[in-house]
Write a structure and sequence with these properties.
300 residues, alpha/beta, Collagenase (Catalytic Domain), five-stranded mixed beta sheet, rod-shaped, binds zinc ion
Amino acid sequence: GGSDMAPFSDAETRAAIRAAQRDLDANARAEARRARRRRMCTPRYLICKVLIPLSMVIVAVWAMVYFLTGRSIVPGIDPDDLPPFFTDNWGDWGEETGYEGGEGDFGPFQKWTDPPATTDNTGLELTVINALTDEWFTYFSTAVTDWQGGDPRPLELDVRVASSAESECDHIRGVMVACNGNYGRTGWTGLNEVLFERNRIVSSVARMNEFYLRNSDSEERQYTMCHELGHGFGLPHRDETVGNADLGSCLDYTSRPGNNQGPDDVDYANLVGLYGSVPPGRTRRHARHAEVTEVTKLTT
Ligand SMILES: [Zn+2]
């Protein structure tokens, strides 16, 4: 006897094959989805496709707000820590400086004591020591020359060069010392540390921080040098917003240091207000009260 089962028709066979094919396709798609999910969870995928684009968006928004308002919208992150924005801490004086005076918008004007500097309202005579490394010499001499400009002229600087660079330049009574070094991630590009007695400046140290400046161009270096020497004469900032119009003064915070390379007439006038002006035709007097023994110690 033969089988009593009826053979499948061709149509039924094709339907069964199609159903099996659909199952296979569905399984393959599900497997592909699982594989994609596994790929998306790899660190490489998260970093490349999620973290980096997200960071770029955040930085772009922050930069826009910062340039429009000059304020950081991210609490705890000081935008000035990040190059290329210049910053320093002028006016944030702790007790160790001896200063007990008030605070202006950008810190009040300060003034050298007399003696050891000579400030008898005929300009400020001050000894400035170059304890920088060679690559800073041109910026230093340009800044010193610029600061001795103005009409009338407020400053008479007695410049000396240390016999070797001193990144840890020490305070010397009656003297301003300029030096450079890698001081680390301090949050300041340049710094002028002043010491006070009875709220008058008795010494000043201007430091250029290579941590932020080692890759910077000549414009930023010139700006920083001019800026920190300017503080050393007692001048506060002219403006502390980075993104606004540049004043043409190196005491104006800027992201375009080429616009603010030297002092401007207002800076000279401010110094004349503090110290008077050097009488025309006066021959250079030496800063009589500088402690030469200390200078000698620095240069050995
Ligand atoms: Zn400053």
